[in-house]
């Protein structure tokens, strides 16, 4: 049998949250679409994320309440519709870890926090919590700070990835670049596989930090990418109560962000981010763990975590390049220079994936790229299907 050509509406490279969300939304819209992943679905940023679906209060605290921050403020409600099976993507089956996310302050900075959070723009996004509603970790007579409840929610990311993947299992394929190649022919991208060439109306690069090499591989240099590295801290312990919260200190960004997870044996793990980790790229892990211990002892001195094990995780946040390494405001979808049918996309936040897929749809419609092809995907069956990535709390502890 000769070499086959597969004409398809959309080919996506990269199966993190951006690629998986896009695949689900476009297929639900009637596009024929396939996704290719080179490792496990959700590898790197997605499986390393804290699963918080932000309503943008973090941005408002930093004084940057732009149009994009208003986009993000709509996101928790968008995700809740999807979780209820009533959105553009069906997330029924995805586990919600918490419907609550808290901001708390140490007593010394509480007046600044209450002024910031009283902002008219934040109405409906944040409410002051009564002591009876405090998360267990803050219910101590020694705690004299303030606690606010955000409209944010926290998802179990492995189950999010699994839910999105299981809805489209027949359209997700493993790719081994030793036997595959992106081609650029007459200014259009195609994908050459061992015995089949995939010719998409649109190629969408959703490979996170892998996008830079894919863009370059197609002979293009734009959109350009930036990496903002950080180092998170994980602590496995014996304190049974979950805790989801940002601690606000003297700066506008959270001093410490805590999310709670369970490893495969049900043991509690706290995942620590915020300023602790954004300033820690390249820091010696032992030194960072010492700082993390001191932070917890200073902020939650009454808490006994029992016996603890510590690990750190270095990751790059991959985003479209901004001036002065600023963080981007919203999801980004941009055409590749010189390649008529290819775009690169970075969500900037897990939270903003619905915005990313909507933006891509708008761009497709503007170019009159509508559902058209009905390919037989059996030509791809030999590639096999990639697994879902294992959470870091199950791989980092010895
Ligand atoms: C520590 C941390 C915590 C975070 N917490 C939050 C949070 O709580 N809430 C929030 O909204 N956002 C959070 N974020 C941001 C969020 O995780 C990212 O914006 C989002 O996961 C990016 O998704 P992605 O699909 O673009 O990239 P990734 O998740 O990095 O996925 C890229 C995928 O592409 C694959 N790939 C790479 N190269 C290739 C290739 N050549 N061929 C095929 N496949 C390829 C990779 O294997 C991977 O599966 C956090 C980020 C970090 C680093």
Number of strands: 19
Q: What's the alpha carbon Rg, rounded to whole Å?
A: 22 Å
- In DSSP terms (H or I, runs of 4 or more residues), the helix count works out at 11
In which range does the helix fraction lie? 10-25%
Please give the CATH class of the largest domain: Alpha Beta
Number of domains: 2
Order of secondary-structure elements: EHEHEHHHEEHEEEHEEEEHEEEEHHEEEH
The CATH architecture name of the largest domain reads 3-Layer(bba) Sandwich
Low-confidence parts lasting 5 or more residues at pLDDT below 50?
A: none
Outline the structure in words:
By secondary structure, the protein is an alpha+beta fold. The protein has 2 domains: 182 residues, FAD/NAD(P)-binding domain (3-Layer(bba) Sandwich), CATH 3.50.50.60; 149 residues, D-Amino Acid Oxidase, Chain A, domain 2 (2-Layer Sandwich). Helix content is 24%, strand content 28%. It is built from 11 helices and 19 strands. Strands 1, 2, 9, 10, 11, 12, 18 and 19 form an 8-stranded mixed sheet that branches. Strands 6-7-5-14-15-16-13-17 form an 8-stranded mixed sheet, with helices on both faces. The longest helix is centred in the C-terminal third of the chain and has 15 residues. The radius of gyration is 22 Å and the shape is elongated. The model has no long low-confidence stretch (mean pLDDT 92). The protein binds flavin-adenine dinucleotide.
